[in-house]
């Protein structure tokens, strides 16, 4: 892109303050961590729920960024850069996109609907890229921020645009319409997603239709209500399809194994096409794509040809554990400049090692000059300090030959034949290739080989849950996130990393070694060690870990170490025992504590806290209020006598939910972050974080009257089909969950666990359930939930979660 700052001052309704009014902008950024930030960047300081990007301006100026769109100029950076001062920086980003959009004039397709937007967009890109140079929304960039950023990706080579727009509440589509300014509209199915923001379905549909206010043609499944609503408001033509007669195009489907045949009736002619899917959603999405091709005048032959090549779209970048301590980021489905840029930013945020390797196929950008494309790719790679690039394909191996540490291969097979699993060690590897290169085979080869059981952790849900609890707190209340016990079994490092960009003030671990591993992995958030052992004090000081101090004896030992290591004002955290009776100072020990702390500058009391024993038990409300009262009084006494100014905190997850009035300066969020609430309504507002999955190893048909498993606990009373799953009590599945107490979910159906659970295996009853060997079985997740299992077994979700053995591979993903 190239835009002059002179032109955007009025476009964004901004006031300019700075030295140089006339500068060329070559990229736009909203992310302070993006490595593209440089002299040509226009940085929009957006204000989010958790973050106000104005705070990063000083840091960005040091990196060389000169132009900022702000709603105010923070004092420390006044006069140090150029500022475009606006009322609202998000609106300014949208205005910028509107201005930028009108610089280009080519057909643009806009897609909205409840589901299928991203898939339809990706498929259309695949179907039409032989004929057009397409700009499309990257991934699912369809929001108030995502749409402007997608539009800003347009450049002079593009001759077709495909953008998706998603909304979560009324009023949003009106803002997106002038940014996209579509000529052709596509409405995918209208379902129940994001229902909470809309009074009625009608209102929602009307809101969505605003995207099409100025299109010439709208493609949709025939729907009398929508069509009358539309035609009443807008001067457009519809182009409709239906499984019944009466629409512009009628489709009759016929399901075969693994594919669906479409008989298409259009304009008194007919033709057939087959798609490699059988599920309803994919069939409808494919028909939507077919409709656009018909509308654009593609020949029947081309349509049939291209539809046959449709493929499953992977919508998320997956982070996987690799061999030799490597981390793999799997993006083996596309290769174009835009998505490479996103993947490299993702790599930067999720790298677990300093060494970064990229395995990249030929980059497809039809219509662009090959040398120019690769020059841009090379610049992008070096901008992200990629240590090593493996290029696979005829073009890339030639074009990037001069890139330092570049290893060229003509084909994926050639690479696989040459490389050994041991070729990579302790590095983060981005695997990014166009589908035709079959990089999925590379991922299989790099991935750590364990059995097929995985605990999938959804990092988006973690952030959702964090925000849910934040929304119940005052904005000024600080948050400490408990990642003890390996992040409640979910992986402490990855969670700490995912949270490092959220506003989290402290992390809590149980033992020093947990904190040391976090530090070694590059986590710099302050960390409190809850059960520090005196033997670890020196190591804690070396790693900047802050101890919980629960007794005078411990404090003396820590002070001795502080003296010996010449520490001063070392942060410590005083724990008071107000009724939990586990660790902490009791009332009669406060004097001694005060004596030790008075006039002591070796340590500094950063926080004073206590722990509630029963914040989740409504009948102990009085007891809990008593704990809070004691805490209030004792901590006030310490503060007054010592003349100190520490933060105070007492609430854990259910405390936040039930006693928000006692939030003091900070809260300690644990189980809730992982999606487990202690009561029904709380739970309903959280998202499931962990899904424990395995596969069906073998299926057997057992006649009536046989027994299953150890000690013959189950007898078949009819002919029974069973599946054996490779997961057992050594993986952390409680044995008590066997013998028809518990179940797993296979293809959305309950399959009872029959017989005793073995160490590494269990059997389930799949009579009447459609499934085959290799299919997925869900042990817990959305259903059954960890809470369901805990309740049935008379224990608590904490125990179930933290018992999942470390041999179960954790896979982290982000949508
Ligand atoms: C574990 C722990 C928490 C978090 O408790 P949850 O119930 O999981 O929110 C808070 N404070 C202390 C001292 C803890 O040990």
UniProtKB/TrEMBL annotation:
One of its GO terms (molecular function) is ATP binding. Coiled coil: none annotated. Belongs to the alanine racemase family. The active site is at 484 (proton acceptor), 710 (proton acceptor). The lineage of its organism: Bacteria, Pseudomonadati, Bacteroidota, Flavobacteriia, Flavobacteriales. The keyword Hydrolase does not apply. SMART domains: Ala_racemase_C. It catalyses: L-alanine = D-alanine. CDD domains: PLPDE_III_AR. One of its GO terms (biological process) is D-alanine biosynthetic process. Keywords: Isomerase, Pyridoxal phosphate. The modification N6-(pyridoxal phosphate)lysine is found at residue 484. It comes from the Bacteria. It comes from Flavobacterium subsaxonicum WB 4.1-42 = DSM 21790. Pathway: Amino-acid biosynthesis; D-alanine biosynthesis; D-alanine from L-alanine: step 1/1. Gene3D superfamilies: Alanine racemase, Lyase, Ornithine Decarboxylase, Chain A, domain 1, Mur ligase, C-terminal domain, Mur-like, catalytic domain, MurE/MurF, N-terminal domain. GO terms for cellular component: cytosol. Its EC number is 5.1.1.1. Substrate binds at residues 582, 759. The keyword Isomerase applies. Its cofactor is pyridoxal 5'-phosphate. This is Alanine racemase. Catalyzes the interconversion of L-alanine and D-alanine. May also act on other amino acids. Residues 689-813 form the Alanine racemase C-terminal domain.
């Amino acid at each position: 892109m190239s835009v002059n700052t002179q032109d955007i001052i009025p476009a964004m309704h901004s006031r300019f303050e700075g030295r140089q009014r006339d500068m060329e902008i070559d990229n736009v950024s909203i992310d302070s961590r993006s490595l593209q930030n440089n002299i040509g960047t226009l940085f929009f300081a957006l204000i989010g729920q958790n973050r106000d990007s104005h705070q990063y301006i000083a840091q960005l100026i040091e990196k060389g960024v000169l132009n900022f769109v702000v709603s105010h100029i923070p004092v420390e950076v006044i006069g140090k850069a150029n500022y475009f001062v606006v009322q609202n920086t998000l609106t300014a980003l949208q205005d910028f996109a509107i201005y930028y959009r009108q610089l280009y004039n080519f057909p643009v397709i806009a897609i909205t609907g409840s589901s299928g937007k991203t898939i339809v967009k990706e498929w259309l890109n695949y179907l039409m890229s032989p004929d057009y140079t397409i700009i499309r929304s990257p991934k699912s960039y369809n929001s108030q921020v995502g749409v402007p950023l997608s539009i800003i990706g347009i450049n002079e080579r593009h001759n077709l645009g495909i953008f998706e727009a998603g909304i979560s509440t009324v009023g949003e589509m009106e803002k997106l319409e002038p940014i996209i300014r579509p000529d052709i509209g596509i409405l995918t199915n209208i379902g129940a997603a994001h229902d909470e923001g809309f009074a009625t379905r009608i209102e929602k549909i009307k809101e969505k239709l605003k995207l099409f206010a100025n299109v010439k043609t709208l493609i949709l499944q025939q729907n009398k209500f929508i069509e009358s609503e539309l035609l009443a408001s807008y001067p457009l033509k519809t182009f409709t399809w239906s499984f019944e007669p009466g629409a512009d195009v009628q489709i009759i489907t016929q399901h075969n194994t693994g594919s669906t045949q479409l008989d298409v009736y259009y304009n008194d002619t007919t033709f057939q096409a087959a798609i490699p899917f059988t599920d309803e959603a994919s069939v409808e999405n494919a028909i939507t794509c077919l409709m656009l091709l018909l509308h654009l005048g593609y020949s029947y032959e081309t349509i049939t040809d291209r539809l046959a090549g449709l493929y499953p779209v992977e919508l998320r970048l997956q982070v996987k554990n690799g061999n030799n301590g490597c981390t793999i980021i799997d993006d083996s489905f596309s290769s174009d400049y835009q998505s490479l840029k996103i993947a490299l930013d993702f790599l930067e945020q999720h790298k677990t090692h300093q060494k970064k390797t990229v395995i990249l196929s030929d980059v497809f950008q039809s219509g662009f000059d090959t040398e120019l494309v690769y020059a841009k790719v090379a610049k992008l790679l070096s901008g992200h300090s990629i240590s090593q690039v493996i290029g696979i394909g005829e073009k890339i191996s030639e074009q990037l030959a001069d890139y330092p540490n570049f290893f060229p291969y003509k084909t994926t097979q050639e690479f696989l034949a040459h490389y050994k699993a041991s070729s990579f060690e302790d590095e983060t590897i981005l695997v990014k290739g166009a589908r035709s290169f079959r990089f999925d085979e590379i991922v299989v080869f790099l991935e750590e080989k364990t059995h097929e059981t995985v605990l999938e952790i959804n990092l988006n849900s973690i952030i959702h849950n964090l925000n849910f609890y934040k929304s119940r707190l005052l904005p000024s209340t600080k948050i400490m996130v408990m990642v003890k016990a390996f992040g409640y079994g979910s992986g402490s490092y990855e969670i700490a990393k995912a949270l490092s960009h959220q506003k989290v003030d402290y992390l809590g671990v149980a033992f020093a070694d947990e904190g040391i591993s976090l530090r070694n992995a590059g986590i710099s958030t302050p960390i409190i060690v809850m059960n520090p052992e005196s033997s670890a004090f020196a190591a804690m000081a070396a790693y900047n870990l802050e101890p919980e101090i629960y007794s005078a004896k411990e404090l003396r030992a820590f002070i001795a170490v502080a003296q010996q290591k010449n520490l001063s004002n070392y942060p410590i955290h005083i724990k008071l025992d107000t009724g939990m009776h586990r660790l902490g100072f009791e009332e009669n020990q406060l004097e001694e504590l005060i004596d030790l702390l008075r006039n002591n500058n070796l340590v500094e009391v950063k926080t004073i806290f206590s722990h509630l024993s029963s914040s989740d038990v409504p009948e102990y409300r009085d007891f809990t209020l008593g704990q809070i009262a004691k805490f209030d009084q004792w901590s006030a006494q310490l503060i007054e006598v010592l003349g100190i100014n520490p933060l105070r905190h007492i609430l854990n997850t259910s405390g936040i939910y039930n006693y928000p009035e006692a939030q003091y300066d900070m809260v300690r969020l644990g189980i809730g972050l992982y999606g487990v609430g202690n009561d029904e309504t709380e739970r309903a507002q959280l998202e499931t974080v962990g899904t424990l999955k395995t596969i069906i190893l073998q299926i057997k048909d057992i006649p009536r009257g046989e027994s299953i498993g150890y000690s013959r606990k189950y007898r078949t009373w009819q002919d029974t089909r069973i599946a054996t799953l490779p997961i057992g009590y050594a993986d952390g599945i409680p044995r008590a969950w066997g013998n028809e107490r518990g179940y797993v979910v296979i293809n959305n159906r309950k399959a009872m666990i029959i017989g005793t659970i073995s160490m590494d295996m269990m059997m389930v009853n799949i009579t009447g359930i459609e499934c085959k060997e290799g299919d997925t079985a869900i042990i817990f997740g959305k259903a059954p939930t960890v809470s369901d299992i805990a309740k049935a077994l008379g224990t608590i979700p904490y125990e179930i979660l933290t018992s999942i053995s470390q041999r179960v591979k954790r896979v982290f993903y982000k949508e």
